[in-house]
């Protein structure tokens, strides 16, 4: 190459960008992605720091918000010096997997798919991501040896459980469950292969996993 020739940057490994309400939720998403899409190989998983606020938006307001989100995902990938290969977006529904869930999810998922330049998946957790954790009761003692998910909380439709975070705080015993424990539980569930074998059901978890399985 001649001295005056422009430098062409090498394209690094692929980048998967996570956007969520906080770092704990994004860490839960990362474990689920690693479980259900292992062929992403060396892709780097990084997070956008801005909290997601999409569930109450529609029309032009939603389109603008998603456009901003996609722009930040592209910027994050550029910062990481790799192509953007995946975008996963989390938000707690604060509601059940009922007709409202289906309507909100359809609206958000379609707009995300329309604007995303890469594979995308929506994690609209019902009631919240702690309800997903209850699908993997065997992971809890690996985080805190004294923790045991009560029998009445196992094998249920956790998408119909109100305030699962408060339920975990009151039912697990000592030490009291904290939001930061959620990421640790998901990590333990991933490392033991439990994320592929939920005990019970939650349509919002299934919908997120179903979108992940379509990623190329």
Overview of this protein structure:
There is one protein chain. The protein has eight helices and four strands. It has 216 residues and is α/β, with parallel strands linked by helices. A four-stranded parallel sheet has the order 2-1-3-4, sandwiched between helices. The protein is globular. Residues 1-10 have low confidence and may be disordered.
Write the layout of secondary structure elements.
Blueprint: E1 15-19, H1 23-36, E2 44-48, H2 59-79, E3 84-92, H3 99-115, E4 119-125, H4 129-133, H5 140-143, H6 164-171, H7 179-191, H8 203-212
Parallel strand pairs: 1-2, 1-3, 3-4
Helix pairs in contact: 1-7, 2-3
What key phrases describe this protein's structure?
216 residues; alpha/beta; four-stranded parallel beta sheet; 43% helix; globular; disordered N terminus
Order of helices and strands: EHEHEHEHHHHH
Q: Which structural class matches the secondary elements?
A: alpha/beta
Task: Sum up the overall morphology in one term.
Answer: globular
User: What is the alpha-carbon Rg in Å?
Assistant: 18 Å
What's the β-strand tally?
A: 4
- Unreliable runs, pLDDT <50, ≥5 residues? 1-10
User: Tell me about the biggest sheet?
Assistant: 4 strands, parallel
The helix count comes to 8
Indicate the proportion of strand residues. Answer: 5-15%
Spatial order of strands in the largest sheet: 2-1-3-4
Mean pLDDT: 93
Provide the helix percentage: 40-55%
């Amino acid at each position: 190459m001649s001295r005056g020739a422009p430098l062409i940057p090498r394209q690094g490994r692929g980048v998967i960008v996570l956007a969520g309400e906080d770092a704990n939720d994004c860490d839960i998403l990362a474990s689920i992605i690693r479980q259900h899409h292992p062929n992403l190989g060396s892709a780097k998983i990084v997070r956008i720091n801005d909290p997601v606020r999409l569930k109450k938006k529609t029309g032009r307001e939603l389109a603008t918000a998603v456009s901003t989100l996609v722009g930040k995902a592209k910027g994050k990938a550029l910062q990481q010096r790799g192509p953007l290969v995946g975008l996963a977006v989390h938000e707690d529904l604060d509601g059940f997997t009922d007709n409202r869930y289906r309507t909100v999810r359809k609206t958000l998922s379609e707009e995300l798919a329309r604007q995303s330049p890469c594979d995308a998946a929506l994690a609209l957790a019902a009631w919240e991501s702690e309800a997903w954790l209850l699908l993997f009761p065997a992971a809890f003692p690996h985080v805190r040896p004294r923790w045991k998910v009560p029998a009445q909380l196992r094998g249920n439709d956790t998408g119909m459980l109100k305030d699962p975070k408060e339920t975990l705080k009151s039912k697990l015993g000592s030490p009291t469950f904290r939001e930061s424990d959620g990421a640790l539980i998901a990590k333990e569930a991933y490392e033991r292969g439990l994320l592929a074998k939920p005990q019970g059901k939650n349509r919002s978890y299934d919908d997120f996993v179903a979108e992940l399985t379509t990623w190329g």
